[in-house]
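Lecture notes, part 5. Sequence design as translation. It can be helpful to think of inverse folding as translation between two languages: the language of shapes and the language of residues. The source text, in C-alpha coordinates, appears below.
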Protein backbone atom coordinates (compact mmCIF):
# COMPACT_ATOMS: atom_id res chain seq x y z
CA UNK A 1 0.00 0.00 0.00
CA UNK A 2 1.26 3.43 -0.91
CA UNK A 3 1.45 6.07 1.82
CA UNK A 4 2.21 9.76 1.43
CA UNK A 5 4.54 11.50 3.81
CA UNK A 6 5.27 15.23 3.97
CA UNK A 7 8.78 16.37 3.12
CA UNK A 8 11.21 16.88 6.03
CA UNK A 9 11.10 20.22 7.79
CA UNK A 10 14.07 22.39 8.52
CA UNK A 11 15.36 22.59 12.11
CA UNK A 12 17.57 20.72 14.51
CA UNK A 13 17.88 16.96 14.58
CA UNK A 14 15.98 16.92 17.88
CA UNK A 15 13.14 18.93 16.34
CA UNK A 16 12.86 16.54 13.40
CA UNK A 17 12.61 13.55 15.75
CA UNK A 18 9.59 15.02 17.57
CA UNK A 19 6.13 13.77 16.58
CA UNK A 20 4.74 16.04 13.88
CA UNK A 21 2.13 18.46 15.12
CA UNK A 22 -1.21 17.60 13.62
CA UNK A 23 -0.03 14.41 11.91
CA UNK A 24 -2.89 12.10 12.87
CA UNK A 25 -3.76 8.72 11.44
CA UNK A 26 -7.29 7.57 12.04
CA UNK A 27 -7.40 4.78 14.57
CA UNK A 28 -9.91 3.33 16.97
CA UNK A 29 -12.87 4.54 14.91
CA UNK A 30 -16.06 2.50 14.48
CA UNK A 31 -16.28 -0.06 11.71
CA UNK A 32 -18.01 0.86 8.47
CA UNK A 33 -21.53 2.23 9.13
CA UNK A 34 -24.30 -0.24 8.38
CA UNK A 35 -26.07 0.16 5.05
CA UNK A 36 -28.48 -2.78 5.34
CA UNK A 37 -30.03 -5.00 7.97
CA UNK A 38 -31.95 -4.26 11.17
CA UNK A 39 -31.46 -0.88 12.84
CA UNK A 40 -29.03 -1.02 15.78
CA UNK A 41 -28.23 1.23 18.70
CA UNK A 42 -25.61 3.84 17.85
CA UNK A 43 -26.70 4.35 14.26
CA UNK A 44 -27.54 7.79 12.89
CA UNK A 45 -30.80 7.86 10.95
CA UNK A 46 -32.71 10.34 8.83
CA UNK A 47 -36.31 11.10 9.85
CA UNK A 48 -38.63 12.90 7.42
CA UNK A 49 -42.00 14.15 8.63
CA UNK A 50 -45.20 14.70 6.64
CA UNK A 51 -44.18 18.28 5.80
CA UNK A 52 -40.85 17.18 4.35
CA UNK A 53 -38.83 18.41 7.35
CA UNK A 54 -35.69 16.37 7.87
CA UNK A 55 -34.06 15.41 11.18
CA UNK A 56 -30.73 13.64 11.65
CA UNK A 57 -30.89 11.70 14.93
CA UNK A 58 -28.68 9.13 16.64
CA UNK A 59 -30.38 6.02 18.01
CA UNK A 60 -29.42 5.73 21.69
CA UNK A 61 -30.79 3.40 24.34
CA UNK A 62 -33.80 4.84 26.19
CA UNK A 63 -33.87 7.99 24.03
CA UNK A 64 -37.09 9.72 23.02
CA UNK A 65 -36.95 11.32 19.55
CA UNK A 66 -38.99 14.51 19.34
CA UNK A 67 -40.42 16.04 16.17
CA UNK A 68 -42.69 18.96 15.32
CA UNK A 69 -45.66 16.69 15.83
CA UNK A 70 -45.11 14.20 18.62
CA UNK A 71 -42.29 11.81 19.44
CA UNK A 72 -41.04 8.25 18.97
CA UNK A 73 -39.25 6.01 21.45
CA UNK A 74 -36.05 4.35 20.25
CA UNK A 75 -37.38 0.98 21.40
CA UNK A 76 -39.99 1.22 18.63
CA UNK A 77 -37.25 1.39 15.99
CA UNK A 78 -34.34 -0.86 17.06
CA UNK A 79 -34.32 -4.28 15.42
CA UNK A 80 -36.52 -3.23 12.51
CA UNK A 81 -35.37 -2.46 8.94
CA UNK A 82 -34.95 1.09 7.71
CA UNK A 83 -37.52 2.39 5.27
CA UNK A 84 -40.09 2.52 8.06
CA UNK A 85 -43.27 4.60 8.05
CA UNK A 86 -44.37 5.24 11.64
CA UNK A 87 -46.88 7.25 13.62
CA UNK A 88 -45.69 9.64 16.32
CA UNK A 89 -47.35 10.09 19.72
CA UNK A 90 -49.52 12.89 18.27
CA UNK A 91 -50.50 11.10 15.08
CA UNK A 92 -47.82 12.57 12.84
CA UNK A 93 -46.22 10.54 10.04
CA UNK A 94 -42.45 9.95 9.98
CA UNK A 95 -40.33 8.10 7.40
CA UNK A 96 -37.10 6.54 8.68
CA UNK A 97 -34.07 5.86 6.47
CA UNK A 98 -30.33 5.45 6.69
CA UNK A 99 -29.15 8.79 5.21
CA UNK A 100 -27.70 8.90 1.71
CA UNK A 101 -24.65 11.10 1.13
CA UNK A 102 -26.86 13.71 -0.54
CA UNK A 103 -29.18 13.97 2.48
CA UNK A 104 -26.38 13.67 5.04
CA UNK A 105 -24.22 16.60 3.97
CA UNK A 106 -26.81 19.34 4.52
CA UNK A 107 -27.17 18.14 8.13
CA UNK A 108 -23.48 17.50 8.79
CA UNK A 109 -22.21 19.11 12.03
CA UNK A 110 -19.96 21.95 10.88
CA UNK A 111 -17.98 25.05 11.76
CA UNK A 112 -17.29 25.93 8.13
CA UNK A 113 -19.13 25.85 4.80
CA UNK A 114 -19.34 22.47 3.11
CA UNK A 115 -19.02 21.52 -0.55
CA UNK A 116 -22.58 20.59 -1.48
CA UNK A 117 -23.39 17.23 -3.09
CA UNK A 118 -24.17 18.84 -6.45
CA UNK A 119 -20.58 20.12 -6.50
CA UNK A 120 -18.83 17.15 -4.90
CA UNK A 121 -20.23 14.88 -7.60
CA UNK A 122 -18.84 17.16 -10.29
CA UNK A 123 -15.47 17.33 -8.52
CA UNK A 124 -15.20 13.54 -8.32
CA UNK A 125 -16.00 13.09 -12.00
CA UNK A 126 -14.02 16.01 -13.45
CA UNK A 127 -11.02 15.25 -11.24
CA UNK A 128 -11.56 11.57 -12.08
CA UNK A 129 -10.92 10.22 -8.58
CA UNK A 130 -10.73 6.45 -9.00
CA UNK A 131 -10.26 3.42 -6.72
CA UNK A 132 -6.61 3.14 -5.74
CA UNK A 133 -5.78 6.80 -6.46
CA UNK A 134 -3.33 8.71 -4.28
CA UNK A 135 -5.04 11.98 -3.43
CA UNK A 136 -4.22 15.16 -1.48
CA UNK A 137 -6.86 17.65 -0.39
CA UNK A 138 -6.21 21.01 1.26
CA UNK A 139 -9.05 22.58 3.21
CA UNK A 140 -10.94 19.91 5.13
CA UNK A 141 -13.65 21.88 6.94
CA UNK A 142 -16.16 19.49 8.53
CA UNK A 143 -15.08 16.61 6.26
CA UNK A 144 -17.94 16.53 3.73
CA UNK A 145 -15.66 16.30 0.68
CA UNK A 146 -13.32 14.03 2.63
CA UNK A 147 -16.09 11.43 2.96
CA UNK A 148 -16.69 11.55 -0.80
CA UNK A 149 -12.97 11.22 -1.56
CA UNK A 150 -12.51 8.28 0.82
CA UNK A 151 -15.43 6.48 -0.80
CA UNK A 152 -13.97 7.13 -4.25
CA UNK A 153 -10.36 6.01 -3.59
CA UNK A 154 -11.52 2.93 -1.70
CA UNK A 155 -9.35 0.82 0.61
CA UNK A 156 -6.55 0.50 -1.97
CA UNK A 157 -6.11 4.25 -2.40
CA UNK A 158 -4.86 6.88 0.04
CA UNK A 159 -5.92 10.37 1.07
CA UNK A 160 -3.89 13.08 2.81
CA UNK A 161 -5.97 15.99 4.14
CA UNK A 162 -4.22 19.26 5.03
CA UNK A 163 -5.99 21.77 7.27
CA UNK A 164 -4.65 24.85 9.04
CA UNK A 165 -7.32 25.03 11.77
CA UNK A 166 -7.19 22.50 14.58
CA UNK A 167 -10.90 22.85 15.42
CA UNK A 168 -11.76 21.90 11.83
CA UNK A 169 -9.49 18.87 12.09
CA UNK A 170 -11.21 17.66 15.24
CA UNK A 171 -14.67 18.10 13.72
CA UNK A 172 -13.60 16.29 10.55
CA UNK A 173 -12.24 13.39 12.62
CA UNK A 174 -15.54 13.10 14.47
CA UNK A 175 -17.64 13.24 11.29
CA UNK A 176 -15.49 10.69 9.46
CA UNK A 177 -15.65 8.35 12.45
CA UNK A 178 -19.41 8.73 12.68
CA UNK A 179 -20.44 8.70 9.02
CA UNK A 180 -17.62 6.85 7.23
CA UNK A 181 -15.98 4.57 9.78
CA UNK A 182 -12.50 3.05 9.69
CA UNK A 183 -10.10 4.93 7.42
CA UNK A 184 -6.56 3.57 7.90
CA UNK A 185 -5.60 5.00 4.50
CA UNK A 186 -6.46 8.58 5.60
CA UNK A 187 -4.06 10.96 7.33
CA UNK A 188 -4.63 14.49 8.61
CA UNK A 189 -1.94 17.18 8.64
CA UNK A 190 -2.20 20.40 10.63
CA UNK A 191 -0.45 23.20 8.74
CA UNK A 192 -0.32 25.33 5.60
CA UNK A 193 -0.61 23.57 2.26
CA UNK A 194 2.37 25.46 0.79
CA UNK A 195 4.64 23.82 3.35
CA UNK A 196 2.89 20.51 3.95
CA UNK A 197 2.20 19.15 0.45
CA UNK A 198 4.63 16.23 0.14
CA UNK A 199 7.09 16.28 -2.72
CA UNK A 200 6.09 12.89 -4.06
CA UNK A 201 4.15 11.82 -7.10
CA UNK A 202 0.42 11.80 -6.45
CA UNK A 203 -2.47 11.23 -8.81
CA UNK A 204 -4.93 13.95 -7.84
CA UNK A 205 -4.88 17.18 -5.78
CA UNK A 206 -7.91 19.19 -4.62
CA UNK A 207 -7.44 22.70 -3.22
CA UNK A 208 -10.52 24.00 -1.39
CA UNK A 209 -9.25 27.19 0.21
CA UNK A 210 -9.80 30.97 0.00
CA UNK A 211 -6.61 31.62 -2.00
CA UNK A 212 -5.20 28.53 -3.71
CA UNK A 213 -2.97 30.56 -6.08
CA UNK A 214 0.16 30.54 -3.83
CA UNK A 215 -0.12 26.75 -3.48
CA UNK A 216 -0.14 26.05 -7.23
CA UNK A 217 3.70 25.68 -7.58
CA UNK A 218 3.85 23.15 -4.72
CA UNK A 219 0.90 21.26 -6.18
CA UNK A 220 2.61 21.04 -9.58
CA UNK A 221 5.73 19.59 -7.97
CA UNK A 222 3.68 17.02 -6.06
CA UNK A 223 1.63 15.79 -9.04
CA UNK A 224 2.85 12.99 -11.27
CA UNK A 225 2.92 13.59 -15.04
CA UNK A 226 -0.65 13.11 -16.23
CA UNK A 227 -2.00 13.87 -12.76
CA UNK A 228 -4.86 16.31 -12.27
CA UNK A 229 -5.34 19.41 -10.15
CA UNK A 230 -8.72 20.81 -9.07
CA UNK A 231 -9.34 24.09 -7.27
CA UNK A 232 -12.60 25.20 -5.69
CA UNK A 233 -13.19 28.92 -5.07
CA UNK A 234 -16.42 30.83 -4.33
CA UNK A 235 -15.90 34.26 -5.95
CA UNK A 236 -14.95 35.66 -9.36
CA UNK A 237 -12.05 37.67 -7.90
CA UNK A 238 -10.54 34.50 -6.45
CA UNK A 239 -11.16 32.75 -9.75
CA UNK A 240 -9.33 35.51 -11.66
CA UNK A 241 -6.30 35.26 -9.36
CA UNK A 242 -6.35 31.48 -9.62
CA UNK A 243 -6.52 31.61 -13.42
CA UNK A 244 -3.42 33.82 -13.56
CA UNK A 245 -1.52 31.41 -11.29
CA UNK A 246 -2.48 28.40 -13.42
CA UNK A 247 -1.50 30.17 -16.65
CA UNK A 248 1.89 31.02 -15.13
CA UNK A 249 2.67 27.29 -14.74
CA UNK A 250 3.88 25.83 -18.08
CA UNK A 251 3.30 22.29 -16.78
CA UNK A 252 -0.42 22.90 -16.24
CA UNK A 253 -2.55 22.68 -19.38
CA UNK A 254 -6.16 22.22 -20.49
CA UNK A 255 -7.58 24.31 -17.66
CA UNK A 256 -11.37 24.18 -17.53
CA UNK A 257 -13.73 26.12 -15.28
CA UNK A 258 -17.36 25.38 -14.47
CA UNK A 259 -20.13 25.95 -11.96
CA UNK A 260 -23.16 23.82 -11.21
CA UNK A 261 -26.65 25.20 -10.66
CA UNK A 262 -29.28 22.80 -9.36
CA UNK A 263 -33.03 23.35 -9.46
CA UNK A 264 -35.54 20.97 -7.93
CA UNK A 265 -39.02 20.48 -9.38
CA UNK A 266 -42.37 20.07 -7.73
CA UNK A 267 -44.15 17.14 -9.41
CA UNK A 268 -47.63 16.38 -8.08
CA UNK A 269 -51.08 15.59 -9.48
CA UNK A 270 -52.01 18.27 -12.01
CA UNK A 271 -49.10 20.45 -10.82
CA UNK A 272 -45.63 20.36 -12.35
CA UNK A 273 -43.45 23.42 -11.77
CA UNK A 274 -40.00 24.43 -10.53
CA UNK A 275 -39.55 24.64 -6.77
CA UNK A 276 -39.59 28.13 -5.32
CA UNK A 277 -35.99 27.69 -4.22
CA UNK A 278 -32.93 26.36 -6.00
CA UNK A 279 -29.32 25.58 -5.13
CA UNK A 280 -27.70 28.37 -7.12
CA UNK A 281 -24.11 29.54 -7.23
CA UNK A 282 -21.90 27.98 -4.56
CA UNK A 283 -18.49 28.08 -6.23
CA UNK A 284 -16.29 27.66 -9.29
CA UNK A 285 -14.36 24.49 -10.11
CA UNK A 286 -11.15 24.77 -12.13
CA UNK A 287 -9.30 21.64 -13.26
CA UNK A 288 -6.02 21.23 -15.13
CA UNK A 289 -3.70 18.44 -16.30
CA UNK A 290 -0.06 18.21 -15.32
CA UNK A 291 2.44 17.71 -18.15
CA UNK A 292 5.69 15.79 -17.96
CA UNK A 293 8.83 17.89 -17.68
CA UNK A 294 9.50 19.97 -20.82
CA UNK A 295 13.08 19.47 -22.05
CA UNK A 296 12.88 21.42 -25.32
CA UNK A 297 13.43 25.19 -24.65
CA UNK A 298 11.25 26.16 -27.63
CA UNK A 299 8.37 24.00 -26.46
CA UNK A 300 8.79 25.36 -22.93
CA UNK A 301 8.64 28.95 -24.19
CA UNK A 302 5.59 28.19 -26.30
CA UNK A 303 3.85 26.54 -23.33
CA UNK A 304 4.42 29.54 -21.09
CA UNK A 305 3.00 32.06 -23.60
CA UNK A 306 -0.49 33.46 -23.18
CA UNK A 307 -3.17 31.48 -25.06
CA UNK A 308 -5.55 33.18 -27.50
CA UNK A 309 -8.16 35.18 -25.68
CA UNK A 310 -5.84 36.18 -22.83
CA UNK A 311 -5.45 39.76 -21.63
CA UNK A 312 -8.80 40.81 -23.08
CA UNK A 313 -8.08 39.67 -26.68
CA UNK A 314 -11.25 39.10 -28.67
CA UNK A 315 -11.44 35.70 -30.33
CA UNK A 316 -12.81 35.50 -33.89
CA UNK A 317 -16.17 33.84 -34.31
CA UNK A 318 -17.43 31.70 -37.15
CA UNK A 319 -20.69 32.35 -38.95
CA UNK A 320 -23.39 34.63 -37.65
CA UNK A 321 -23.25 36.31 -34.28
CA UNK A 322 -25.06 34.31 -31.64
CA UNK A 323 -27.90 36.08 -29.83
CA UNK A 324 -27.02 37.20 -26.34
CA UNK A 325 -28.62 35.37 -23.44
CA UNK A 326 -30.61 37.22 -20.76
CA UNK A 327 -28.83 37.82 -17.49
CA UNK A 328 -29.46 35.25 -14.78
CA UNK A 329 -31.70 36.34 -11.94
CA UNK A 330 -30.51 36.36 -8.36
CA UNK A 331 -34.02 35.60 -7.14
CA UNK A 332 -34.10 32.63 -4.75
CA UNK A 333 -30.41 31.91 -5.35
CA UNK A 334 -30.12 30.16 -2.03
CA UNK A 335 -27.11 27.80 -1.60
CA UNK A 336 -28.92 25.67 0.93
CA UNK A 337 -32.24 23.96 1.11
CA UNK A 338 -34.75 24.83 3.77
CA UNK A 339 -33.55 23.62 7.16
CA UNK A 340 -35.86 21.63 9.36
Amino acid sequence: MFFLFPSPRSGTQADRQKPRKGKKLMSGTPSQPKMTGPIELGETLLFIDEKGREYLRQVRAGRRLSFKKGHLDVDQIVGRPDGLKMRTSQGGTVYIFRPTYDRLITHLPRKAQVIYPKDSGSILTQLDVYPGARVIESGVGPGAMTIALLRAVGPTGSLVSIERREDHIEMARENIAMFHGDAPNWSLVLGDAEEEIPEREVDRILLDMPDPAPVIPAAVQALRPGGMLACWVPTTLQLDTLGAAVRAEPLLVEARTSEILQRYWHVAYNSVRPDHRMVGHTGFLMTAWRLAEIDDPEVRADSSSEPPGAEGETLPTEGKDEPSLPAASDHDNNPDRESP
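The translated text above is only one of many valid answers, since several sequences can fold into similar shapes. The chain has a mean pLDDT of 81.
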